[in-house]
Amino acid sequence: MKHPVFEGSAVAVVTPFNPDGSVNYTKYGELIDRQIEAGTRAIVAVGTTGENATLSGDEHRALMRFAVERTAGRVPVICSTGSNDTAYAIETSKAAEEAGADALLLVTPYYNKTSQSGLIRHYEMILDAVKIPAILYHIPSRTGLFVKPETFTELSKHPRVAGLKEASGDVSFAAKVLDSCGDDLPIYSGNDDLTVPIMSLGGRGVISVLANVIPAETQRICALCLENDFAAAGALAMRYMRLTNLLFSDVNPVPVKEALNMMGLGAGPCRPPLFGMSETSRELLRQGLIRLGLVK
Questions:
Q1: Which residues are tagged catalytic?
Q2: Which residues is 45 bridged to in the sheet?
Q3: How many domains does the chain have?
Q4: Is residue 110 included in any domain, yes or no?
């Protein structure tokens, strides 16, 4: 039985930028503090929502160090270090370990992809190079690589594989992995709209975009699931489902940064090739936040 890195809501925290595109560390620290104070159970740094695809190597390493230092042991810090280049993933994973990260988040290789056996070897090479646990990340819509349940079963045998962020959007796939791996592979929803369904099958929580906006409520949904009160969890999730959908009405993290900016939290712009929402979409998002009392 694997001990989960966390249970409940972990935030895939945005990386705030200044108007000139540089990292705004002051706001980054404030966003991390806001999450912890609201009850978020883990900080996931420099992931997709943190725009790691447009960070330089130096920025990536600096943000990992900053997240660990700012969190100061209050909750686990999980650093996203996956890559389609195995050597770079190893290098970045070692840097995260040296920075004091509690765990890694390792997305499957993208673009060049790999075979199922190649994927196992890719992960083994990374995991054998570090001593901290890792959560695997399955998101075929972005990577183009679909992982078979039996591949996750094999990977779950590695002592440093501590979980799976499942973001295929297919609850039946999550059920197959849960059935195959059991407690050897704690599963976290990677889709905010599927948190309750996946947790009802035995998932341990969510790695969330929504938590950037409503951290306490996202954790409450997870807490209710962990208490087996799925009716209350579902009702609360449905209250925020329109907002959840609005946060994915454009490419993540464009809408969530827009929402945080509307709330006065200073997330700043996205880096190109991501740009702001259309005026129509932006107004729909604003109205959604107004309905929930998040902006005036």
A1: 137, 165
A2: 79
A3: 1
A4: yes
